[in-house]
Each structure stands twice: as structure tokens, then as C-alpha cells.
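Consider today's protein:

***
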Amino acid sequence: MLQLGFWKRLFIWGLVALGLLLALPNAFYTRVEQSNDAVAAIEAGDDTPENQALAGQWPEWLPSNLVNLGLDLRGGAHLLAEVQVADVYDARLQASWPEIRDALRPERATVGTIRLQDSPAGTLRIRIGEASGMQTALGIVRGLARPVQTLTGAGSTDIVASGQGDLITVTLSDAEKQATDERTMQQSLEIVRRRIDEVGTREPTIQRQGSDRILIQVPGIGSAAELKALLGTTAQLTFNPVVTRTTDENTSVAPGEKLVPSLDEKGVYYVIQTSPVVSGEDLVDAQPAFDQNGGPAVNFRFDSSGARRFGDYTAENIGSPFAIVLDNEVVSAPVIQSHIPGGSGIITGRFTVEQTTKLAVLLRAGALPAKMNFLEERTIGPELGQDSIEAGKLATGVAFAGVLIFMVLSYGLFGMFANIALIINIAMIFGLLSTIGATLTLPGIAGIVLTVGMAVDANVLVFERIREELKSARGPARAIELGYEKALSAILDANITTFITAVILFVMGSGPVRGFAITLGLGIVTSVFTAVYVTRLMVVMWYDRRRPKQIEV
């Protein structure tokens, strides 16, 4: 008959209590957020009385997970960036020059001298001393070509070499350009994500749009200008051999060399080789530190490949200067005193502590492979987000009140049970959103409003079945039991189909669509639980206490 065991009742109420407890921090959002930020600052070493006071605003033994607010609710920065993928072509070709030079050197008797020439963007021009050796030179250069490692580029090589007179022209193949574009976009996405994650922002949206654009939305950041400053900094670190030091900014340089200024010494310039020995791509770690004199500095460490090249170069060039170049400025140019194994070192200069911290962040994230042009930039203020929250609260409140009134008018006391379950349902949704760290957006609020209407649908099915069973002259207990049993299949079928739709929206959609899918999917799970178990438990407890001979549904 109409019975629920003690342990089943305890389990149901236990889940309800857990859901309400997890949702509780959202009722004190600002207080809990300040406390969480203060705790994080204390753990990072900023243990001040102010942070201690803020951390004490929320008890440690209570849950402190909050629902993250999206850009449209919290405010923040919106950027649409275009990646200049063509810029990578030239860097890719310049990096191949040392390999081509070394391959041609054994054939100097045939090809003559080998000189790098000034080249237009996207090409590499090499002049040989003997035009008669052109075919030999072309054969060697073409022999350096590698297969393109993509499905679309199967059978193609990465470079194309042609010759005219004594001039060899090397370009990237179309297949390699396409593969390079794809790698550049993937690398740019990853570096943008790393840089934003390093500053501790909550739930940023970073998505590729089209072939060469990236959409960036960061809730909680001050302005679009602040975000641009973070993303637009290249932080490209290279270690280059030094040709000479000069104070003449008009010093002429040979092909394969460039003139860069000193970061610390005004009026001092260095002529360095353009091909670096190692670069920031070989870095595995960078941390702010202090040098032997107590000045701010940055410790760095290379990966195994970079460490090997760095060690080999220092062993072969003891007594020669070596430039540490950051964003086309020489940070320092120390003379190599001895072999440096292990692949670690320190960058010193006239830095502040704040500058070394930011530099370490940028170096760890890596250098952007290509320049980004910002096509759109918007700053969404918190006032606008607050207006959205208030509008969402109003919409949810109106829908909530309408459903509550309708259920009471239609089903009386049983409608009251459904209303209590509905309140529990909404609280459990927020508890789950807080637990999984989901982001609530305006479409997410729409999903909650929709859930309010759908949540009582299962109760309506049950109550209508109970009415039908009462018309069959069955007793109240038997009618309630059969009502829940016969309505269960219809409830599951309706909610499973809707849940499948929510899963598809989450997998196939992005941004706001996924926010809607999350709240809708979680709402379906909690509404089925509250309708099938919580409402039933309340009905059973009421019936056990009152034992009515007749019931009105």
C-alpha cells in the first residue's frame, strides 16, 4: 500500500537538505564572493588584516561555491580579434635559413658563395656565387622539404624552391600555408586562454569564429582596454648571438642580422643575428624572483630540447656576448663565461616587482605566433548586468507566482505540496550549478523560467491520474499509489526526450546556448526528483498523520 520506508524517507530528505545547503551561499552572494577572494589572496601570501576580516564574513564549515555570472550578468569585456596568420609565413621561412645554409656549405665548390638577400614578405631569397651550380643548389634545397602532415595536404611538401640566374627563391607551398594557418589559430587560442586563466578571471568565453578570428568574453574584468593590454603584449623571448655593440642607431646591418635597442641603456644598440639559438617556445617555466643583489628578476627554465641547444651553444662560444631579447629589446647581453648546462637562467634588468610578475605570466603563457587586430571591443558595465539580473528575477518571480496560484486553485492541498516541491526544485538547481561551477547567463535564466513551468507538469500528470482512480471508487490510499505508479512512465518519457534535447544543445551549441542547455538539463533532473519523490513523500506523510476517508484533488 501507500508506504515509504524509514531509510528511503531519510535519503530523500537528506538529498533535499544537501541541495538547500549547496544553494545557500548564493543567497549571500556578495558576502561569500568577498570571502572567497580574501581566502585566495591569503593563500597567495597576502595575509593582511583586511583580508582576514573579509575571509571571516563566511564560516569555513559552510559551502562557499557560487554560481558564476556570465558576461551579460556580471559585466566585463568583449573583444573580437583577427589573427594576422600571414605574418607567420615570413618567420617560418627565416627560421629555415640556417638549415638551408648548412646544407649548401659542403657544395661550395659547385655553388660558390651563399648569401641571404633582402626578401619581400613570404619569401626567402638566397644568392649563390656560381649560377652554373643552380640545379645542384635547387636539388639540395628541395631535398630539405618535408611532407605536410595534414589530410588535405597529403602528398605535398612544405616548401617550394625555384631558381633564376644565381638567385634561389623559397616560398611555402599552399598546403603548408593552410596547415600553418590552422596551427597558428590553435596556438593563438591556447595562448589567449593561458593568459586569461593566469589572471584568475571567472568562466571566460574563448571561441574561434571563422578562419582567422577569435571571440573573447571575460566577465568581471575592468574594461576592454585592460583585456587588450593583456592580450596585445607579445612577450616574445629569444636568445640571439651578438655581432657587435654600437651607439649609432643608423648602423647598417647585413642580411640575416638586425639592429635592436637596449632596454636599460638609452642610446645603446646591438646588432644581433636574426635566427635565435633558443626562443620562448622552449620555455617550460618562468617565475618572479630576486637576483644576487636583491633586485627583481625572472627565473626561467628550458625544456630538454632547448636546454640541449642552449648548453651546446654556451660550450662552443665561451667569451662571446649573448643577447637576451624581449620584444625586440635587449634586456641584457652577458658574456658567456662558461658552459651552462641544465637549461635554466635568470633575466635581470631595471624591473619592478609588478613588472617581473607580469613578465613571468606572459612568458609562461608563451608568445602569440602572430599579431592580432581587434575588430570589435565593448565594455559591459556591471550596472547593465545588474539590470539583467533584476529583469531575470522579475520574470522568474512572475512565472513562479503564476504557477503557484494556478496549482493551489486547481488542486488545493495537493497543489500546495507541489508548490513546496517547486521551491525545493529551484533551490536544488542553484545548488547543482554552484557545485559544478557552471556559468549563469540570461539564456540560463530563461532555462530556469522554463523549468518553473515544466517542474509542475509531472505533478499535474500524477494528480490527474489520482482523480481518475478516485472516480473508479477506489480508496484514497490505493488511488494515490496507483496515481504515482501509472503516471511514472509518462513522466519519464516526457522528461527523457526533453533531456536529450538539452544534451544536444549543450554538445552542439556554444556560449549562451550551452548556458540555456545546462539550466534546462539540471532543471529536468531536479524536477523529476522533486515530483516523483519529494511530493510523494509529503503526500504520504500527510496521509499517515490524517488518515482521511475521502480526499479532494
User: Anything to note?
Assistant: The mean pLDDT is 80. DSSP finds 16 helices and 19 strands in the chain. The two ends are 19 Å apart (CA to CA). The CA atoms of residues 30 and 320 lie 58 Å apart.
